[in-house]
Design goal:
Blueprint lengths: L1 H23 L5 H27 L7 H14 L2 H10 L6 H17 L6 E3 L5 E3 L3 H25 L6 H19 L6 H22 L9 H7 L6 E9 L2 H8 L1 H19 L3 E5 L4 E6 L6 H18 L6 E9 L5 H19 L1
Antiparallel strand pairs: 1-2, 3-5, 3-6, 4-5
Helix pairs in contact: 1-2, 1-8, 2-3, 2-4, 2-8, 3-5, 4-6, 7-8, 10-11, 11-12
């Protein structure tokens, strides 16, 4: 019991650190801060529910109501963690649906307590799993899978994908859950979940540091760090939005921002699967292709066609000049390829004027 009490104290400290960091983090907007705070609170309630249930198991009958209440809190709150985390760290297009589903599950768990459907506490104040316990298990597993999918989708948007940190974090969560189910006396599931939450949180704002706030493309710092480590062969493509200052002056910066987002979305759509997309200046972009190098002309045509379609839909949308160059580490320096791409881009820019 002393070991479990120590684990719970560590849990609470980690949750407090996570919440305090989020609330003082200037990179996060207020809605995200509030969601992280709610997540930490619900996570703390879940862990405390399990702890109180464990500590009251087998105690005098006077503690039976507390025991039932604690387990009810745990079973109601724990499956909610995934959907709350997904709203904080993930990309939920229709958040109301999963939130409603898990709220219904929480209501079911609360209603099931007096009827001993999911668990029961006998006259000796001993906890027992009942026939519908599998519903809680399924809800919890779905919750964990749900957050993984949502975070992976967000990573794709921010060009980080599913990296080793995310994979190992999910392994950590899974390990804690498996150990809990196999060895019921080893209660480290919420310790693993709470540590994993902090890792996911730090990964999230590290991801924000790497991207441009407006376009969600990788930023100039990432470009400068990555340009010297692009491998032995690549294609460097530079892009410049034509007459962008005129768009801002005539239509306003709001329209200018929309144009930049359209360009960024098109770059990500056309080139994102084969390389990295960057915003390196106000209206300047770069793509470093690591694969499909022989298909660069076809990709460029797809990009030009997509921009032309956008211009047909909105006459305020400017054209985009591009230039590219092949880089081979055995034959040239990367700076030479950058200059060749720039030269082609400016030549195309003059032809469009």
């Amino acid at each position: 019991m002393g070991m479990y009490s120590a684990i719970i104290i560590i849990d609470i400290f980690v949750l407090c650190i996570t919440a305090a960091d989020a609330m003082t983090n200037r990179l996060l907007d207020k809605p995200v801060k509030n969601k992280v705070l709610v997540l930490c609170i619900v996570m703390g309630l879940s862990a405390l529910g399990e702890y109180v249930g464990y500590m009251t198991n087998g105690t005098p009958a006077a503690f039976i109501p507390l025991h039932k209440f604690a387990k009810g809190v745990e079973f109601s709150c724990a499956p909610m963690l995934g959907v709350i985390a997904a709203t904080a760290y993930g990309n939920l297009q229709k958040p109301k649906i999963p939130i409603a589903v898990f709220l219904m599950h929480a209501a079911f768990e609360c209603a099931a307590v007096p009827f001993h459907l999911v668990f029961s506490v006998d006259a000796q104040n001993m906890y027992h799993r009942q026939g519908l316990y599998f519903i809680y298990v399924i809800a919890f597993i779905v919750s964990v899978a749900f957050i993984f999918i949502c975070i992976a989708r967000t990573g794709k948007e921010y060009q980080t994908g599913v990296d080793g940190v995310l994979i190992m974090t999910m392994i950590l969560i899974s390990t804690g859950i498996v150990i809990q189910f196999i060895y019921r006396d080893i209660t480290i599931d919420f310790l693993c979940i709470i540590i994993a939450n902090y890792l996911i949180y730090t990964r999230y704002y590290r991801m924000i540091l790497q991207v441009d706030a407006l376009t969600h493309l990788l930023n100039r710092r990432c470009y400068e760090n990555n340009i010297g480590n692009i491998g032995s062969r690549a294609v460097i493509l530079n892009f410049d939005v034509n007459k962008f200052k005129q768009v801002n002056d005539v239509y306003g910066h709001h329209v200018g921002d929309i144009c930049l987002k359209n360009v960024a979305d098109t770059l990500r759509s056309v080139y994102g699967r084969y390389g990295s997309c960057y915003r390196i200046g106000g209206d300047e972009f770069c793509v470093i292709l690591n694969s499909q190098l022989d298909d660069v002309d076809e990709l460029n045509k797809n990009f030009a066609d997509a921009i032309a379609k956008l211009r047909q839909e909105d006459t305020r949308m400017p054209n985009v000049a591009l230039g590219y160059a092949y880089y081979d580490a055995a034959a040239s320096h990367v700076q030479q390829a950058i200059e060749e791409a720039d030269s082609m881009m400016y030549k195309n820019k003059k032809q469009m004027s």
